[in-house]
């Protein structure tokens, strides 16, 4: 039975803004530049996964414990004392220890890995910044092997555009200053990564470039000094601040709060002979904002409002939400483009904050099926 709407029990005043077209986990710090990662690694190689050493059969989708180690074949060497065609053993991570985890369905995939020295019995190799890993199923490793680290620049070969642009041009670009990066998003919406302008502003000279179709850019031979990078942010998008803090802009102690207030002006420091990075991730810059008032016109605190897409199928309960503050205000941010109805008290349970049944704005009996 459809839950009844208690229409008129309160009002929702809505302002629509810019609605347009690992329990224990590994924690990563600032991502190094390509140059920093190259210099601090014993081995920089392209490897192809050829086989896995299984302890048991896989039991679930995100099961990492069924593999003890993997075998990889060297396809290309940028640094280190190994030869193309050599087979290397790499340890399987535990899912929370910052060591790369593999799956047998990835056999045949290629990777760009920045590695330390091989080591035995589960200990990380030299240069890996730790001496221990979490206990693993199947006991300690019985032979020396490498440990690819989940943090840093090791990546699948398809995601190594920035790295390969530099590594494939050594030694021609060695010792040159470089600013590079990739502009991307985690969302599935129509983000156009190509042709985004990046302008570097200095006191005496400016430099301008644009991203390629994959969102990648690079500039060599920049005079050492401090710059402001002005990014032409696509309409409807904003820079993810968390990821911005973890890109190597050249400021070791950079405080984003002390940077220029404009969201597209980012301080960048170029040191002599060094690299800086500007890897930016974009979030949707959209929001649904409003207030929840009682019948007496007073703000209601703790009322949770959910934005439900009108295109969802019946029985689909998904939807972004936010609860009102002391002023009765809510803001549901990073909404995908589309049409929405707002739902308050979607479970229909009455309490001190929500002393009413399910409410829709605009009112609709049809949408009640989504939450009943």
Describe what you observe in this structure.
Helix content is about 5%, strand content about 35%. The termini are close together. It is mostly beta strands and about 375 residues long. The chain has helices spanning about 35-40, 160-165, 240-245; strands spanning about 10-15, 45-55, 65-80, 85-90, 110-115, 155, 180-185, 195-200, 205-210, 215-220, 225-230, 235-240, 265-270, 275, 280-285, 285-295, 305-310, 320-325, 330-335, 340-345, 360. A hairpin with a 7-residue loop joins β3 (about 65-80) and β4 (about 85-90). The chain has 3 domains: about 10-20 and about 285-370, Immunoglobulin-like; about 35-160, OB fold (Dihydrolipoamide Acetyltransferase, E2P); about 175-285, Immunoglobulin-like (Sandwich), CATH 2.60.40.
């Amino acid at each position: 039975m459809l839950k009844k709407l208690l229409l008129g029990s309160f009002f929702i005043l809505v302002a629509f803004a810019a609605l347009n077209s690992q329990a224990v986990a590994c924690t990563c710090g600032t991502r190094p530049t390509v140059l920093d990662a190259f210099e601090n690694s014993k081995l920089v190689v392209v490897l192809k996964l050829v086989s896995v050493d299984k302890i048991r059969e896989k039991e679930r989708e995100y099961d990492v414990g069924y593999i003890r180690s993997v075998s990889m074949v060297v396809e290309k060497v940028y640094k280190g004392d190994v030869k193309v065609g050599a087979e290397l053993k790499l340890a399987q991570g535990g899912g929370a220890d910052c060591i790369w985890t593999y799956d047998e369905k990835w056999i045949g995939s290629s990777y760009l890995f920045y590695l330390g020295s091989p080591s035995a019995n589960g200990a990380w190799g030299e240069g890996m910044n730790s001496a221990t890993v979490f206990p693993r199923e199947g006991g300690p490793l019985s032979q020396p092997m490498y440990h690819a680290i989940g943090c840093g620049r090791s990546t699948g070969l398809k995601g190594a555009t920035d790295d390969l642009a530099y590594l494939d041009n050594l030694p021609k670009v060695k010792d040159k200053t470089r600013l590079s990066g990739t502009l991307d998003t985690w969302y599935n919406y129509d983000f156009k990564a190509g042709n985004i302008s990046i302008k570097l502003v200095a006191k005496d000279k400016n430099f301008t470039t644009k991203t390629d179709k994959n969102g990648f850019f690079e500039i060599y031979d920049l005079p050492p000094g401090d710059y402001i990078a002005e990014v032409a942010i696509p309409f409807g998008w904003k820079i993810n601040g968390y990821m911005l803090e973890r890109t190597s802009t050249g400021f070791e102690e950079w405080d984003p709060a002390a940077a220029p207030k404009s969201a597209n002006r980012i301080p960048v420091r170029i040191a002599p002979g060094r690299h800086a990075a500007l890897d930016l991730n974009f979030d949707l810059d959209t929001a649904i904002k409003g207030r929840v008032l009682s019948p007496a016109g007073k703000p209601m605190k703790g009322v949770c409002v959910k934005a439900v897409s009108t295109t969802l199928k019946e029985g689909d309960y998904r939807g972004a939400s936010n609860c009102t503050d002391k002023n009765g205000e809510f803001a549901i941010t990073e909404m995908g483009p589309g049409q929405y109805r707002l739902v308050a008290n979607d479970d229909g349970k009455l309490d001190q904050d929500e002393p009413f049944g399910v409410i829709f704005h605009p009112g609709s009996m049809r949408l009640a099926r989504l939450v009943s």
